[in-house]
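Notebook B, p. 112. Complex prediction, attempt 2.
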Amino acid sequence: MNAIEVTGLSKSYGQVKAVRGIDLSIATGEIFALLGPNGAGKTTTVEILEGFRSRDGGDVRVLGFDPSNDGSAAREWRNRIGIVLQSTSDSGDLTVIETIEHFSGYYSNPRKVEEVINSVGLDDKAGSLIRKLSGGQRRRLDVALGIIGNPELLFLDEPTTGFDPQARRAFWELIEKLRGDGTTILLTTHYLDEAEALADRVGVINDGVILALSTPSELGGRRTAQALVSWRDGSEIKTESTDNPTAVVNKLTTHFNGDIPELTIIRPSLEDIYLSMIGGVHE
Ligand code: ATP
């Protein structure tokens, strides 16, 4: 069974058509990254799946449940999902450990509080008041609150915004651990390297429409895209675009009778492909 099934999802705010007929399936255990520029419709989509926003049309099933239902089954369903929203609510007068302990009480099968604090790298700050945390530390606390309930399905809306590079790498390790536990994860991010490192599949959304669904390595024909081979020939740097870099390298090896000076082979990055899909550099 798929963890998430969406067909024909639509949502407008007045005249703004934020989501215009999205179809999306996410398998159980999959890590899926939703990519798209500011205002593309990512948060709207994700918050509909989380049951925080209403939809205008389409069919949505999240762990087999329609998130627009708010009957007694909704409580049970909430117990099975974890959420890290884009913006955080304030509970500045509690400490980190008090906050996580408080939230753990909402779930029937929570993780251990100390283990969660450790996995987001907040051991040193466990006793600190939330209002004294830095922005990145606050965000780590958000992630802790998302995973404390030991969710089957975790929603992460731009989880690493404000993280320093070290914290991001630690977060990636945490996601790998959750993957190992079989957690399904739907993540939105503006960091293409993050999507590439973590996601089994990515979806590119622009103007409320999904433009492409693929693995990061295959998005937009990336795997077979032309490679740029460059090398030094005397005082000149030469380049050649090719579908077959091996053939070019073989030719050059013969030409130089061995080592090719300053050889590089570059294929388009996920970011190159993504930017070409959404129409270049956005404001
Ligand atoms: P970002 O990367 O900036 O978070 P996003 O892809 O998450 O963007 P959404 O927040 O889903 O985009 O917004 C999609 C569109 O809907 C935008 O044009 C936005 O202005 C509009 N929108 C979002 N929320 C509301 C709201 N509560 N009321 C009115 N318009 C909204």
